[in-house]
From TrEMBL:
This is PLP-dependent aminotransferase family protein. Keywords: Aminotransferase, DNA-binding, Pyridoxal phosphate, Transcription, Transcription regulation, Transferase. GO terms for molecular function: DNA binding; DNA-binding transcription factor activity; pyridoxal phosphate binding; transaminase activity. PROSITE patterns: HTH_GNTR (PS50949).
Length: 408
């Protein structure tokens, strides 16, 4: 799999630094307890990126050759090998859970993956953090949907990425508007967030072709595919990908509980080792009891049963919200058609102050979002986002009838 000459060069340099330091430790040129140059100094000496040095140091630490002391620096470990008493296990997650996830997404989402392709994460945010660590450098351009999910662009910006918003239309992300210097593209093709439309098959193929020609990584966030209420199943980009450049992410917090911080990343074989190393460095000590419990929950068929039961309930809420928006707000709101998820979006006339409407609604005990809050770089589109995941059916009617008095 190719990720551009720049990324390949970084990987080669990190491999060289790793090999030389490891050899120096093994043959005694670097002795136990001896300090290594700080990453900044090493990068300056070699005229390379500090991140490249960090990758090599992180790998050596993960393999037990180095240890870090807060405020002191990086040192050769006393034993020169894995630390005595270090916990056994794989940083990619409990093998039983990874196998269970692979089977689950294979059946429910048509994702092509085995257990070895899965990295268990603490959610989509951590999956994206791992992708940044492994494949991107500060200053790289990452394209995101506009409007889109704010926490993603906040994480990317905090990591030093240059975030560019790309407009969406009725078929999803506009491939023709992608920036030519993008190194990665983040998309929600099965159920665009927040508008709700799926990316059409021609558009998905166009995106894959564009990424292949320009050697770009695609991050596919499939955050709520289990809750699909009608229409044809949406084939994920990952299953259409023939080059192994789609990194597929998902979460269990939407279908279980938000406090269950468990998600996953599906990576191609060429990146297995790199993502395991990044997972080890970022947060190796996972909640193994929770992982074991979830693996059993999936294997015993309880997750599938839970999804079927909750899908029926959410379908009823979805249909009720859509019906009332169409009747109570005819001529005021233009509902964006959607057949999945736990929210619906509706557009307001140009020039409407949707943030003021959302504030007045909150004062009346109605929680919703202003669509303009999700704008990235393009002009904000006024509208409202109605989440019904936590709203009982018995309260939907009353809430929307109160909102009718607020929306102009």
């Amino acid at each position: 799999m190719r990720h551009g000459g720049q990324v390949q060069v970084r990987r080669d340099l990190a491999e060289q630094i790793y090999a030389r330091v490891r050899a120096a430790i093994l043959d005694g040129r670097l002795r136990a307890g001896e300090a290594l140059p700080p990453t900044r100094e090493m990068a300056r000496r070699l005229a390379i990126s500090r991140n490249t040095v960090g990758v090599a140091y992180d790998r050596l630490a993960a393999e037990g050759f180095l240890t870090s002391r807060a405020g002191a620096g990086t040192f050769v470990r006393e034993t020169g090998s894995a630390a005595r008493g270090a916990p056994a296990g794989d940083p990619a997650g409990l093998p039983a859970l990874r196998e269970a996830i692979a089977r689950h997404v294979g059946v429910s989402r048509s994702v092509r993956a085995g257990g070895d392709d899965i990295v268990v994460t603490e959610g989509v945010q951590q999956a994206l953090d791992l992708i940044v660590r492994v494949l991107l450098e500060p200053g790289d351009v990452v394209a995101v949907e506009d409007p889109g999910y704010p926490p993603v662009r906040m994480l990317l910006a905090a990591a030093g990425m240059r975030v560019r918003g790309v407009p969406v239309d009725a078929e999803g992300l506009r491939v023709d508007a992608l920036p030519g210097d993008a190194r990665a593209v983040y998309v929600t093709p099965s159920h665009q967030f927040p508008l709700g439309m799926p990316m059409s098959l021609p558009r998905r193929r166009a995106l894959l072709d564009w990424a292949r020609r320009r050697d770009v990584v695609i991050v596919e966030d499939d955050y709520d595919t289990e809750y699909r209420y009608g229409g044809r199943p949406i084939e994920p980009l990952q299953s259409l990908d023939e080059d192994g450049r789609v990194l597929y992410t998902g979460t269990f917090s939407k279908i279980m509980r938000p406090v269950l911080r468990l998600g996953f990343l599906v990576a191609p074989p060429s990146l297995h080792r790199a993502f395991r190393m990044a997972r080890y460095v970022s947060s190796w000590h996972a909640e193994l009891p929770a992982q074991a419990a979830l693996a059993r929950f999936i294997d015993e068929g309880l997750l599938a049963r839970h999804v079927r039961r909750s899908r029926r309930e959410y379908r009823a809420r979805h249909e009720r919200v859509a019906d009332l928006l169409g009747t109570l707000f005819a001529g005021r709101l233009d509902v964006v058609p959607a057949e999945a998820g736990l929210h619906l979006s509706a557009l307001l006339p140009d020039g409407t102050d949707d943030t003021a409407i959302a504030a007045r609604a909150l004062g009346a005990g109605i929680g919703l979002f202003a669509l303009s809050e999700f704008a990235v770089t393009g002009p904000p589109v006024p509208g409202l986002v109605f989440g019904y995941g936590a709203v009982p059916r018995t309260k939907i009617d009353a809430g929307l009838r109160r909102l009718r008095e607020i929306v102009p």
